Amino acid sequence: MTNTWNILGHEWAVDMLQQHAARGEFRHAYLFCGPPGLGRRTLALHFAQALNCPTPLTPGVPCGTCRDCKQIEGMRHPDVNIIQADSEGGTLKVDQVREVQRALSLKPYQVNYRIALFLRFQEANDNAANALLKTLEEAPAHAVLILTADTPEQLLPTIISRCEILRLRPLPVASVEADLIARGVETERARLLAHISGGRPGYARTLVDDVTLLEKREERLDDLQSLLPAARVEKFSYADKLSKDKDAMRQAILIWLSYWRDVLLRVAGASTPLVNIDRNMEIEFLASRLDLPTVRRVVGSLETALEKMERNVNSRLLAEVLLMDWPKA
Questions:
Q1: 231 and 251 in contact (C-beta within 8 Å)?
Q2: What is the 3-state secondary structure (H, E, C) of the chain?
Q3: Which of 24, 96, 251, 308 is the least buried, fewest Cβ under 10 Å from its Cβ?
């Protein structure tokens, strides 16, 4: 279901932000939280349009077609700064924050408000986070700061307390499936991608556009099946190769985590739909052989591994411990 901003889902958030823009009663800082691919950036850009569109359809509803709206949508507006780490899983540095601080101190060139959009702010190092805190405390009246992060808990409490927090939730899988079908995706494929996305429309559309993502997923899930009965020496060898590319390791852990969460759902007898529906038989088989504490431990170790990767621990040691902890099945 789309709304006045033509965004799939998040109706309550759109309604709230639209009212803020229409009444001119917006906060100077917002934090949009939720898993990647959920539409955090899209929502932020639409909010920037709502604040700055010179010809809104109604108060708080941008036209989407004027020069300012088009430039904001394309992330190339002179009054909208996009700040992010060089790559996903990278580090957002203090120099990037200082650069935008200088930009925010200037009056806008074209529109009413300067927007600073900090994407994946959980990737900011301590210096960058502390520098932003100063900006949040002294933000000029013509500036609006929007941060995105997976969860608020990843950020400094002092930053969280200065932001209006919007916790975005995944959409029903059926809504994402319908959106993909409307975009011309074949029904069975749309169903699979909607499930794999876990109700994240942005990620589902990325899966449509980039087939290599599905191929890599298939490969990692095949690896998981091979590793479960593997001997220690094979696991050590795999851990060594995996740890050589930090980004690939992070993606592998995310894929494995979604799989083990499916196993957990089945062991617990939950009715929640599986993410990896194309692996249903394997998941049911594993669930029949493992108990709840064992699967919970595996899920917990994968979640911990992701947190540790953000803290730059020894990747090889982390991979070894992770794989050795998996049950024989």
A1: no
A2: CECCCCCECCHHHHHHHHHHHHHCCCCCEEEEECCCCCCHHHHHHHHHHHHHCCCCCECCECCCCCHHHHHHHCCCCCCEEEECCCCCCCCECHHHHHHHHHHHCCCCCCCCCEEEEECCHHHECHHHHHHHHHHHHCCCCCEEEEEEECCHHHCCHHHHCCCEEEECCCCCHHHHHHHHHHCCCCHHHHHHHHHHHCCCHHHHHHHHHCHHHHHHHHHHHHHHHHHCCCCHHHHHHHHHHHCCCHHHHHHHHHHHHHHHHHHHHHHHCCCCCCCCHHHHHHHHHHHHHCCHHHHHHHHHHHHHHHHHHHCCCCHHHHHHHHHHCCCCC
A3: 24
Please state the pTM of the whole predicted model: 0.84
Task: State the Cα–Cα distance between residues 264 and 275, nearest whole angstrom.
Answer: 12
The residue type of 217 is R
Domain ranges of the chain: 11-167, 171-209, 211-324
| Mean pLDDT in consecutive groups of 10 residues from the start of the chain, 329 residues | 78 94 92 93 96 94 95 95 88 91 90 94 91 87 94 91 94 94 94 93 93 94 94 94 90 95 94 91 94 95 86 85 87
Residue 165: CA atoms inside 13 Å, Cβ hemisphere, count? 16
Phi, psi of 149, deg, nearest 5: -160, 160
Tokens of 208: 């449509």
